[in-house]
Design brief:
Number of strands: 11
Order of helices and strands: EEEEEHEEEHHEEE
Structural class: alpha+beta
Shape: globular
Helix content: 10-25%
Strand order of the largest sheet: 6-5-9-8-7-11
Radius of gyration: 16 Å
Largest sheet: 6 strands, mixed
Distance between the termini: 29 Å
Length: 148
């Protein structure tokens, strides 16, 4: 993943420029209008991982994974992501998201990085979420539980 200084979060679609940003097929060329998305595992417009999980991966399993290699959109610290499925978070000044599922690591992540990542991030691979209210996200923005 590529780190950017700021990104536009769009409710119902994801992060502008992300490879999984939801595009809409307009029915041109006679085809039906439909919603197009890349991820097949459910709603995930934005994903989070806590940097402490990456530190634990190194400490507990001897596997170093840089935050950009984790393939999550937002890296935070001290947020209990594993407890936030169904809960709302505020990121930055006004972006609201709702946790939809834990983001368990997959074999593809391990293939793209290094052996041990799958086992080491099991049950601490982050959080998948949908964007409830969009806006601009910036590096250093706080992640807070609940609405403002």
């Amino acid at each position: 993943m590529t780190e950017v200084g700021e990104v536009l979060a769009v409710a119902g679609r994801g992060l502008m420029g992300d490879r999984y940003f939801r595009y809409f097929h307009d029915g041109a060329a006679g085809g039906p209008s439909r919603h197009v998305i890349g991820r097949s595992s459910g709603v995930c417009e934005i994903s989070f991982i806590d940097v402490d999980a990456l530190t634990a991966l190194k400490h507990d399993h001897g596997v170093f994974l840089a935050s950009g290699e984790a393939r999550r959109n937002v890296v935070c610290r001290g947020v209990p992501l594993d407890q936030l499925v169904g809960q709302e978070l505020t990121v930055g000044a006004d972006v609201r998201v709702r946790g939809t599922a834990l983001s368990e690591p997959c074999a593809r992540l391990e293939r793209l990085t290094r052996p041990g990542v799958l086992r080491g991030l099991l049950h601490r691979g982050g959080l998948r979420a949908m964007i409830v209210s969009g806006g601009v996200l910036r590096i250093g923005d706080p992640v807070r539980l609940g609405r403002l």
